[in-house]
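Recap from last week: sequence in, structure out.
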Amino acid sequence: MYIDSDKSIALNSAITDGYAAYFFWVNGDRKSTCMPTKKKSASCNGTNEFSFSDPTLSSNPQGYVWLHLQPDGLEYPTTPPANCLSLKCNSTIASCGIDDFSCVTSSQTGSSGFCFKGYACGLPLQLF
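Predicted structure tokens:
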């Protein structure tokens, strides 16, 4: 799966139901050897912190466009840990990219909330 930043921005502008950010789950799981409280190292530094079951993502280039300073789950650990990946689109600015997030997070309502819209795996991302 390749995430094209221009298409992500177009997708972002097509979603207009009042949330501050929208997420789509994508393939990638934090490696057990790179879970918090582990610190960044040569083997846990950025995108190599994750394993991919989708064969199109198993080697570089992965096709993911990461948000600035992401992934940050080892620098800013959360409970539960940010061990999954999602495509995050901010509704107020033209910004879409991959972010690490807790796998058990659910949507939060309100204008500062966020919404998990679905998932994408092995196919071009589309809005239905």
